[in-house]
Automatic annotation (TrEMBL):
This is ABC transporter substrate-binding protein. SUPFAM superfamilies: Periplasmic binding protein-like II. Transmembrane segments: none annotated. The keyword Signal applies. Residues 1-22 form the signal peptide. InterPro entries: Bact_solute-bd_prot1 (IPR050490). It comes from the Bacteria. It comes from Paenibacillus azoreducens. The keyword Hydrolase does not apply. Keywords: Signal.
Amino acid sequence: MKEIRKASSILLCLAVSASLLAACGSSKGGEAATSGTDGSSKAEGVKKEGFPIVDKPLTLKIMSQDAGKADWGKMPVMQEMEKLTGIHMEYQLTPIDSFATKKNLIFASGDMPDIFYAADLKPAEQVTYGSQGVLIPLEKYIDEGYAPNIKKILDEHPDVRKSFTTPDGHMYALPFIDTGAVWYRSPMWYNGKFLKALNIKELPKTTEELYTFLKRVKEEDPNGNGKKDEIPLTSVKLDDLRMYFFGFWGMYGERIYADKDGKVHYAPQEEGYKGYLTFLNRLWKEDLLDHETFSQTPEQKKAKGQSNKIALFNDYYPYFTLGGEPGEDNPLMTPVSSEIPGTPVYGKHPGMSANGTFAISSKNPAPEATMRWIDYTYSYEGSTLFNQGPEGLLWKYKDKENHIKEWLPVPGGGDREEYRGTITPNFGILTPGISDPEVSKGLRSSFDDWIDKENAEKLVPIGKSPFPNVYLTNEEQTEASALSSDLDTYVQQMEAKFVTGQEPLSNWDNYIAQVKKMGSDRIVELYQGAYDRWNSNK
């Protein structure tokens, strides 16, 4: 449950950090709808403006992953949407951890829903199933007036449109958009109690200073229990810290990234990657990096945090690991510089989801109406509804004209976030829509403001978006997938061996030769071509 809360909390964090405004707005693929003077579509009985969307009640099948908090059909948000739009949804829901498998089975069987919602559609899936006609192009309905909110966003932020346009010129999926987002992956935090016990007034700024700090944690008993049980740095398989630490050696993507000159890099064969491995191996040898890093679960890591044993760790917020309530005592880690010139850098969020969150299948009988339905979630009113529920449940307007709200007591008491998960599907999953700062006016806490301040001081000035959302062609994707399958496995295995010393770093040249033999340079070529296409598509 904590993992679910964590995911939904980061969505709330994103939902207060962007700078987008909105406006409100769905035809069978390939048929041109004709508009009447009242703004309705004569061909489909779909109104381009106002509600309900359809003249006659319409039922559509919607597939999504589900955090399992409540029956979607009984959620106030979905009931409100049906009343507003005239569209009834039949739900095909799958638990989060098995959704990817279910999605693959659905595509293989051809037994499609009408709508894919919160579907985590990878670029390869969009290209493959779009070109096969399984997913329909969306740009026609957007540009013909069935999605005015989405069109407004795409017109104001052309990078969003081009980042979700496949090589055949079509948009088969919509993203979650947050142009003000900072965190690409959750960041690193210091245990404030340890900093205080060690009388540290200034956070480490170089890898050497970081090493010295971690060494002190190991030797000086900052948790004060008389035992040497402190864990200077912990991780779960390095997946949680890799992105952050890469920036110390000038890399800002875990796999592929493009530098300021537009040159594509494959991180695991960069010289900076060797520096990263060398540093972690040093920490490992001196027992400064948790020796359970490659075996522990996130829950085991959190248990160590709540026992006040961890000095430096990754999580969405520090209190998720350390326990307690939101506060300002555990500072965001300042990225540190290394021997690589121009460091540190930080892999910043690109402003939109990497994968598609919404798509329409070719089985859908009313794509115009469906586009109007989803377009509402990209408006202020729709974003408010899906993020916070209908007015009067969890919140009310304090000043409606200026969009200022205030929280209401949670019905029946209890945790607000847990209750929110019972009223809206936007809980624990990444859903289509925008992050509009207007939505959270009046609802922000001092902790939210502190997070923004930490980001602005420590991450934004050195932030670089790793790589745009680019698409390979079908042929390129087939080749890249085949190469990546073995290459990614090898790189992951060798990372663990280098860090733990099973493989000496004196064998670096052999590793590089093997990576190149397995096709790393070809991966770079393929993504360089895709990046160049994206860059030229103004």
